[in-house]
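Before drawing any conclusions, I needed to go through one protein's amino acid sequence and its backbone structure tokens, quoted below without any editing.
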Amino acid sequence: MEAGRKAHLATAAWACTALCLLSCAAAFSHGASPSACTDMVPRHLRAQLHSPRNNYVTIHTNMSFYAPGDKVPVTVRSSRDFMGFLLQARKVSNDEIAGTFVFIPPGSKLLTCFEDGDTVTHSDKSLKRNLSFVWKAPDQPIGDIKFFISVVQSYFVYWARIESTVVAQRGQN
């Protein structure tokens, strides 16, 4: 009788652990958590950060300059598949998140970190390689900006804060 009870408890403990792990994994399969807004680091258990210099992802824009209110196309390109991402535009002067995204591709969704639509993340864990976005600059001057992306290749491997070249605000001294 005692052996049967121990087996039952062991099975219940295993089921509880499995459910906890599945719920943690499922939470991130639908996008980054707002807790990643500031440092852009995924909150996966035992996730391993890789150097941004050794990544396979690049952020491109065909504009070197922008003016307040402009819409800036942004393309993320990768030589390998990845599952998750977090994309933001940030002011060069103080690293604050700036502007909003007005076009996002399928498999992604807007996230509010400080302002509605200032961040984009994945909405599913389908494999991604090339993604196109449109970012809208605020109507007031904010200075030069850079785009930053964190990419999750798998639940355990990610790159944080891969950056674009500077997009300068036109007419700024």
Remarks:
- The longest helix spans residues 2-29.
